[in-house]
Amino acid sequence: MNFSSKLLEDAVAEFAKLPGVGQKTALRLVLHLLNRDKEEVNQFSKAITKLRNEIQYCKVCHNIADQPVCEICSSPRRDKSLICVVEDTRDVMAIENTNQYNGVYHVLGGLISPMDGVGPSDLEVDTLVERLAGNEVKEIIFALSATMEGDTTIFYLNKKIKHFAVSISTIARGIAFGGELEYVDEITLGRSIATRVPYENSLTR
Amino acid sequence: MNFSSKLLEDAVAEFAKLPGVGQKTALRLVLHLLNRDKEEVNQFSKAITKLRNEIQYCKVCHNIADQPVCEICSSPRRDKSLICVVEDTRDVMAIENTNQYNGVYHVLGGLISPMDGVGPSDLEVDTLVERLAGNEVKEIIFALSATMEGDTTIFYLNKKIKHFAVSISTIARGIAFGGELEYVDEITLGRSIATRVPYENSLTR
């Protein structure tokens, strides 16, 4: 693209580095910011710099937090004997929004993915093992994506922690609520028949 | 959404103000920035603040520029007797990319749109009239969107400038190159028959 201004070109190039943002979208966003008040634009860039410079990660569960220990880990009402292992903070938010979970979390910070060069040492694995060594934990729930990377990570972590006296579970996989059978893929449908649950159990949501 | 951090929430809220960016996309972009180096994030926000604070608009054509008069207006190789009237800088870039136009531009900064509260006084209309009063201009080309707002703006501007001794034209409307007739809407197809051009003329691209 032929930019009429170097400043404009630089700003567009920076926006285009964001995932899923191409040159045209970047230009649209930058022109939108140009039409906003200077004060608002300063607030925008300050919020980002401040986040990057001042963000903390909870010492216990490694979730994004404003304090050294996050609200969930420091809450007396959460069940510390139950740890849900997730990939990142988005998964914590998704599970919190269900209002169905009262335990604590452990944020791995990614999934094992040799293709992307992510190995176990890049994730918060050692600290998970340390938490289990404390004897307070009774159950571990793996709530990872149902992908190759998620399965690999569960396989690896399971090997690491199976000698502890904790029960290990993964979240249920099957047909989504509201899902129509004819549109479900074969693997999910096949597995959901193999891992069928007694009717009474399925009613307790 | 339940954010675990106020800093994160603020940054997401700022991103979600951008057009076409919802809460989920904003969160994805913000988490991406969190994983980047501090230096890179500072560069990102500095590029935006710098653009907003230091940007200039060309005194002649009102296009975005780094100097008081933009490169196109100050170039001795451009034909100053031909002015192309466009909505914003994106249109200038689009036309420049064709390499078919050697005149100069006039950037209105928007289109007349009563629905959005944009009237003629919000656009660079008076400065266009001033440019025409200088007697140097021979032709005006309206290259505005083929929408209600674009047509209204052309109608208004035409009334304002028709007493000057300049020829007034609009860019040609019709079937796009590579377009298949059966997918073209009725209005475009109907008008393209009514405004048909001699075969010889259609060959000179």
Descriptive overview:
- Chain A has 9 helices and 6 strands.
- The longest helix of chain A has 17 residues, at about 40-55.
- The first copy, chain A, has 2 domains: about 5-55, RecR Domain 1 (Helicase, Ruva Protein, domain 3), CATH 1.10.8; about 75-170, Dna Topoisomerase Vi A Subunit, Chain: A, domain 2, CATH 3.40.1360.10.
- The first copy, chain A, is of the alpha/beta class and about 200 residues long.
- In chain A, helix 1 (about 5-15) packs across helix 2.
- Chain A has helices at about 5-15, 25-35, 40-55, 70-75, 90-100, 125-135, 150-160, 185-195, 200-205; strands at about 55, 65, 80-85, 105, 140, 165-170.
- At the A-B interface, helix 1, helix 2, helix 3, strand 2 and helix 5 of A face helix 1, helix 2, helix 3, strand 2 and helix 5 of B.
- Chains A, B: Belongs to the RecR family.
- Chains A, B: Keywords: DNA damage, DNA recombination, DNA repair, Metal-binding, Zinc, Zinc-finger.
Biggest sheet overview of chain A: 4 strands, parallel
Q: State the end-to-end distance of chain A.
A: 54 Å
CATH architecture classification name of the largest domain in chain A: 3-Layer(aba) Sandwich
Proportion of strand residues of chain A: 5-15%
What is the helical fraction of chain A, as a range of percent? 40-55%
Would you identify the regions of chain A where 5 or more consecutive residues have pLDDT less than 50? none
Task: Give the helix tally of chain A.
Answer: 9
The whole-number mean of residue pLDDT values of chain A reads: 90
